[in-house]
């Protein structure tokens, strides 16, 4: 027998959306056959991967300050006769790879999201050619083919990317430039990956895509959900993020028919003023969005709606902002993410007149958040007294406590035995707060 590969330590820091979380896991899967084991401490790492996000200015700035700290750690390791390879991945790597190389000489490798399958090769090259600095971005060959189907999941829920990229070009957004054109993985590859997850005890998958409901593999997202629902052990299916323009009748019907499709839908609207929606290049109006929500609720009356909002888009007047508040009141959201507009270089909205002052954005964000918080709390409180099936995911923060999720993606805390982790169990909801529910086991479990 040959000696096992020497253990090298890998530290990955992930920013941004769930797709980055998925990508980080896949990078770890790819590197493990090379002898890389994960560490929680960057100062111990032979290889550091910084998986970055470009969506707002703040996220991007963070990369450069973190690289400053990593450079210090790299120098300390070198002084002790060790080494540290620093790789920058993700959307900032794609958008400003050259600038990263220029601003931070400690970086060895810059790698865009379409090139992750080349990571082992690039790391090996970086090791051989000491001092050579490498970069890779949009790759001609499909990365998913080379990532393979075998996963090494760490819990009972998992992310699964089915679609990547975006052709919508909302005028505020960098994603079409960082993730490239829309690409859908073939159904069979997704089913194989899902089976591998289910075989390892995963009970819930969240299908990911920048425009997940634009999935264009055979049968569309509705067909895929129906096929995934048949996989033994896979009892819950979620997907995110959807665009209102791609919410077709087949998918809406599936919400009424496929039991595994969870009653929670993240359907960003961004704003409630048609004038602003047009300037954002969103393909919907406030009214068409409201009608869509109504149609979805006619199939699945209890569905929990979530959304994304941007306040202070260029040219947004008080009356436009009031229209956003009005739309929120009409929909009634169970959860939402709201952001101040951030001017992104290279996007059409960055050049628009009427940029809104930061104080105005702050004031609007505070009012919007107050309303959304109120709705979220009300939604959670409306569950008190009900019995909900909860998938237990992990031990809770306190001894003897378990933590799981309701069908509506609410966090639920319960006292109960550890062996319930990975099971879906009825829980009576006793009380609710803004962020979570507290309940008790509805049945006796020895
Ligand atoms: N593909 C998804 C989400 C992409 S980014 C969709 O179409 O909904 C996640 C959220 O970040 C967006 O929904 C939007 O609300 C926000 N966002 C994107 N660009 C932004 C910017 N320049 N400033 C502030 N928020 C932004
Ligand atoms: Fe960005 Fe719009 Fe595409 Fe979503 S749909 S990723 S907001 S361009
Ligand atoms: Fe950020 Fe890229 Fe995701 S910009 S939100 S990491 S797609």
UniProtKB/TrEMBL annotation:
Cofactors (names): [4Fe-4S] cluster
Reactions catalysed: N(6)-dimethylallyladenosine(37) in tRNA + (sulfur carrier)-SH + AH2 + 2 S-adenosyl-L-methionine = 2-methylsulfanyl-N(6)-dimethylallyladenosine(37) in tRNA + (sulfur carrier)-H + 5'-deoxyadenosine + L-methionine + A + S-adenosyl-L-homocysteine + 2 H(+)
Cofactor binding summary note: Binds 2 [4Fe-4S] clusters. One cluster is coordinated with 3 cysteines and an exchangeable S-adenosyl-L-methionine.
Record keywords, A-Z: 4Fe-4S, Cytoplasm, Iron, Iron-sulfur, Metal-binding, S-adenosyl-L-methionine, Transferase, tRNA processing
GO cellular component term, pick one: cytosol
PROSITE patterns membership: MTTASE_N, MTTASE_RADICAL, RADICAL_SAM, TRAM
All copies of domain MTTase N-terminal, residue ranges: 8-128
Listed name of the protein: tRNA-2-methylthio-N(6)-dimethylallyladenosine synthase
Organism: Phenylobacterium glaciei
């Amino acid at each position: 027998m040959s000696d096992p590969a020497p253990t090298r330590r890998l530290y990955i820091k992930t920013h941004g959306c769930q797709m980055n979380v998925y990508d980080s896991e896949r990078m770890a899967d790819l590197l493990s056959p090379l002898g890389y084991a994960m560490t929680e401490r960057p100062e111990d790492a032979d290889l550091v991967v910084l998986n970055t996000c470009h969506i707002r200015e703040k996220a991007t700035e963070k990369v450069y300050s973190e690289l400053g700290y990593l450079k210090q750690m790299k120098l300390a390791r070198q002084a002790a006769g060790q080494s540290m390879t620093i790789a920058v991945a993700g959307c900032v790597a794609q958008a400003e790879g050259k600038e990263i190389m220029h601003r931070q000489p400690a970086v060895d490798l810059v790698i865009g999201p379409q090139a992750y399958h080349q990571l082992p090769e690039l790391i090996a090259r970086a090791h051989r050619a000491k001092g050579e600095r490498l970069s890779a971005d949009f790759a001609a060959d499909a990365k998913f083919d080379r990532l393979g189907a075998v996963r090494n999941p760490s819990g009972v829920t998992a992310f699964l990317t089915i679609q990547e990229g975006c052709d919508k070009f909302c005028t505020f957004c960098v994603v079409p430039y960082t993730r490239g054109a829309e690409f859908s993985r073939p159904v069979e590859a997704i089913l194989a990956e899902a089976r591998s997850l289910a075989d390892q005890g995963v009970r819930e998958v969240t299908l990911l895509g920048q425009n997940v409901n634009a999935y264009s593999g055979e049968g569309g997202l509705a067909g895929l959900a129906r096929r995934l629902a048949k996989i033994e052990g896979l009892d819950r299916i979620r997907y995110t993020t959807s665009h209102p323009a791609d919410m077709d009748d087949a998918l809406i019907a599936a919400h009424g028919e496929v039991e595994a499709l969870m009653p929670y839908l993240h359907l960003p609207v961004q704003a409630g003023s048609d004038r602003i929606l047009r300037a954002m290049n969103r393909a919907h109006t406030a009214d068409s969005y409201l009608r869509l929500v109504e149609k979805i609720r006619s199939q699945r009356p209890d569905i929990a709606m979530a959304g994304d909002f941007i306040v202070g888009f260029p040219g947004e007047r008080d009356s436009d902002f009031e229209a956003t508040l009005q739309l929120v009141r009409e929909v009634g959201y169970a959860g939402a993410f709201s952001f101040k507009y951030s001017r992104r270089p290279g996007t059409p909205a960055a050049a628009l007149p009427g940029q809104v002052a930061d104080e105005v954005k702050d004031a609007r964000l505070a009012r919007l958040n107050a309303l959304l918080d109120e709705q979220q709390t009300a939604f959670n409180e409306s569950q008190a007294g009900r019995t909900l099936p909860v998938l237990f995911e992990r031990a809770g923060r306190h001894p003897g406590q378990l933590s799981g999720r309701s069908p509506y993606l609410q966090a639920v805390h319960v006292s109960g035995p550890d062996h319930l982790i990975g099971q879906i169990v009825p829980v009576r909801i006793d009380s609710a707060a803004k962020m979570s529910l507290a309940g008790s086991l509805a049945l006796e479990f020895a």
